[in-house]
Design goal:
This protein is an alpha+beta fold and 408 residues long. It has 16 helices and seven strands. The protein folds into three domains: 93 residues, 2-Layer Sandwich (Double Stranded RNA Binding Domain); 92 residues, DNA polymerase, domain 1 (Orthogonal Bundle), CATH 1.10.150; 182 residues, Intergrase catalytic core (hpI Integrase, Chain A, Orthogonal Bundle). 29% of the residues are buried.
Length: 408
C-alpha cells in the first residue's frame, strides 16, 4: 500500500485542533498543525541513534513562508547532509547563532548601543545629529555589515551620498561619528581597529574662514545685548559665563554641578568632556562664582548647570547659544568668538602665551612639559582669569581701561 503524500489542498484544508497534530509526507517530512492554526514543516530523523527534529519553516502559499515544493527541497538538502554524517539540526543551530552574532556586531546594532549609551548626557542637538548622520545616514549604507568586515573604503562609501549632495562638512561629520562608534566598540572589546580613524583626511573639507576677534566696542555691545535681551535667565547666565571663562561651548553647556566647587572657586572638567581628552581646571573669578550661584537657583535640582528647556535630565541644546546670538541680530560672531577674543586681548595685555594656551586647553605635544605646566601655571591662571573678568567688566562699562598684566 502506497502512503499518500501531502498536497497543497490537504494542507489548506487542515483545521486547527485543541492539540497539535501531524500530516506526514515522506521520509520523515511532515506538517505540524498547531493549536493556533499555524502550520510548520519539520523533518524528523535519527542521528547516531538519537531522534532529532529540524524545523524547516512555516507553510505559506503567498511567498511569505515555505510552499510544499520548497519544503520538500529543503528536506532533500537536509537528508543529503545527514547522509554525509552531519546533523541538520545542529548545523542549523550553529548557523543561526553565527547569524545572530553577526547581527549583534553589525554596525547598526553597535551604533544604536553607542547612541543609547551617550544620549542621556548629551544635548538634544547631539541626538538629532547622531540620528541624522548615523541612523539615517551611515546605517543605510553599512548598517548590516559586521564591524570586523568594514574597511576604510566602506566608511568613505557611507560618507559619499552626503558628499555628492555638496555637503563636505556633513560628510566629514558622518566620518567622525562612524569613528566614534568604532571607538565605542573598541572600549567594549568588540574590535581592535578603527577604519574611520584611518580615513581621516580623505574627505576634502574647505577651510572655514576664521571669525575675527571682537573689538572692545563689539565686545561691549554684545555683552550689553545679552544682558538686556539674551532670553531666559539661565541662557543669559550661560552666555556671560562663556565670556568670562572662554571655554569651548560644549564644555560649558554640558557642565555638571559635580564638576564645580564654589568654595575653592574651581571648575574641574573631566577628560571625557574635553576635546583633547585631558582633564582641565578652570579657575573661577568672583564674577563667575556669582553667576553659578544664580544658575544653581534656576537649575531645579538638575545635575546640569544649564539644563535643557525641555527636560532637566539633559543639558542645554548645543545650538541654543548660537541661535541666541542670531536672535540678537549678531551674525558676525559665534559663541566661539568669546574664546578667540579672550586669547587676543590677553596676549595684548601682556600675559604669557604658555599660560593663555594652557587656559585655552590647547594640546601640549611635550607630555613632560604638559605635566609641568599644569602644576606651575594654575596660580598664574587664577590671577589671569580674575584679571580677565575685571577687564571684561571695564570694557562693558566703557571705562578707561588700564590692562592688568601678569606679574611674572
Amino acid at each position: 500500500m502506497v502512503r499518500q503524500m501531502l498536497t497543497d489542498t490537504a494542507i489548506k484544508k487542515a483545521k486547527r485542533k485543541p492539540r497539535r497534530y501531524k500530516l506526514t509526507d515522506r521520509e520523515g517530512l511532515y506538517l505540524a498543525v498547531m493549536p493556533t492554526g499555524k502550520k510548520v514543516f519539520r523533518y524528523e530523523y535519527r542521528f547516531h541513534g538519537r531522534r532529532e527534529t529540524l524545523t524547516l519553516g512555516t507553510y505559506s502559499d503567498t511567498g511569505k513562508g515555505l510552499s510544499l515544493i520548497e519544503a520538500r527541497s529543503a528536506h532533500a538538502s537536509a537528508r543529503k547532509m545527514l547522509e554525509a554524517g552531519q546533523s541538520p539540526a545542529i548545523v542549523k543551530r550553529k548557523a543561526d547563532a553565527q547569524a545572530a552574532a553577526k547581527i549583534a556586531n553589525c554596525f547598526k546594532a553597535v551604533a544604536d548601543a553607542y547612541i543609547a549609551e551617550f544620549s542621556p548626557n548629551r544635548s538634544a542637538s547631539w541626538q538629532a545629529q547622531a540620528d541624522r548622520w548615523l541612523k539615517r545616514g551611515a546605517c543605510s549604507i553599512i548598517g548590516d555589515i559586521p564591524l570586523s568586515e568594514i574597511e576604510r573604503a566602506d566608511v568613505l562609501a557611507a560618507c559619499k551620498p552626503v558628499l555628492d549632495r555638496g555637503k563636505p562638512y556633513s560628510a566629514e561629520r558622518t566620518r567622525a561619528y562612524i569613528a566614534d562608534v568604532f571607538s565605542f566598540a573598541e572600549s567594549l572589546g568588540l574590535i581592535d581597529r578603527n577604519p574611520a580613524r584611518a580615513a581621516r583626511g580623505s574627505i576634502s573639507v574647505p577651510v572655514s574662514p576664521e571669525r575675527p576677534a571682537m573689538s572692545a566696542k563689539e565686545l561691549r555691545e554684545t555683552i550689553i545685548a545679552i544682558r538686556e535681551r539674551g532670553g531666559r535667565s539661565s541662557t543669559r547666565i550661560a552666555f556671560e559665563a562663556l565670556a568670562y571663562t572662554f571655554t569651548r561651548k560644549s564644555e560649558l553647556t554640558c557642565a555638571r554641578w559635580e564638576e564645580i566647587d564654589l568654595d575653592t572657586a574651581e571648575w574641574r572638567i573631566p577628560a571625557t568632556r574635553m576635546k583633547m581628552k585631558e582633564a582641565h581646571v578652570v579657575p573661577l573669578s568672583h564674577q563667575v562664582v556669582e553667576l553659578f550661584k544664580q544658575a544653581k537657583a534656576l537649575s531645579s535640582n538638575s545635575g546640569f548647570v544649564f539644563p535643557s528647556m525641555k527636560t532637566l535630565a539633559k543639558p542645554l541644546s548645543d545650538t541654543a547659544l548660537n541661535n541666541g546670538l542670531v536672535r540678537l541680530g549678531i551674525h558676525k560672531f559665534t559663541p566661539h568668538s568669546f574664546r578667540h577674543t579672550a586669547s587676543t586681548m590677553l596676549n595684548e595685555m601682556g600675559w604669557r602665551a604658555d599660560v593663555i594656551e594652557r587656559q585655552l586647553a590647547h594640546s601640549e605635544r611635550n607630555k613632560i612639559r604638559s605635566t609641568y605646566n599644569k602644576a606651575t601655571y594654575l596660580a598664574e591662571r587664577r590671577q589671569m582669569m580674575q584679571a580677565w573678568a575685571d577687564h571684561l567688566d571695564a570694557v562693558v562699562l566703557g571705562a578707561n581701561i588700564v590692562p592688568i598684566k601678569s606679574r611674572a
